[in-house]
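Could you help me review a protein record that somebody else here produced? Do not assume that whoever made the record got everything right. The record follows directly below this note.
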Amino acid sequence: MTLSKQELIDLHYAKCLLENPGLAAKLTNTIGVPLERGFAMLPERWSDTIGDVTARSIERALKVALSTLDARPALTSSERFHKFAVAATGAGGGAFGLPALAVELPISTTIMLRSIADVARSEGENISTAETKVACVEVFALGGRTEGDDALESAYFATRAALARAVSEAASHIAQKGLSSRSAPALVRLVSQIGSRFGVAVSEKAAAQAIPILGAAGGALVNTLFIDHFQGMARGHFIVRRLERAYDSETIHHEYAKLSTDR
């Protein structure tokens, strides 16, 4: 089976979203200040704080956000509404500085995951299924590499391959027992693996917000870029999954590899 012209256009759009410059580049280009300056302002042992906050944020989002979105199919998603909501939380975080991140991030992550689920629904996903719930959370791990990824593979497919076992086990657990038992090994592994990758983006966000000139308005801007980045990852991810449902993962992977990332 061969993809139609429109399906190839959709796949090209997905690849442009998933493989083009990540959050750090977007933040630097927008605020006009190198993120290295912000990283230098972060307190010692900040990496420990990031790990704790990101894990709690993903756990809370997994429990709260996906249970509040209507599972009926939809042709469109409300990205703009969720951007406004996350920008408001960012303004508060920017006003009170880095200590507010532990309070602001779980709220922002919950709103973002609800937006991701909204995007999934608009691409034909049934968000009442365990598989789709886990695929929504998986989006937080997309858009960046770790040292263990295959340098010759796309960042997107490398991340999916690295998470494949944890995603499968978590989806099976949720299908059988729901989200109530969050201490189950399958869910702990998923949160840990996604949290380590999401933590990179959170560190970049924290570094941007640490730059003194930004303040409350800057916090809102950083959060808007933050959610916009993951909304893009979600759109690309669920376009790929839609095409995989119509064909198969091997065919879509092969066609994806042949496409450029030129817009």
Q: What stands out?
A: The chain has a mean pLDDT of 82. The longest helix spans residues 215-246.
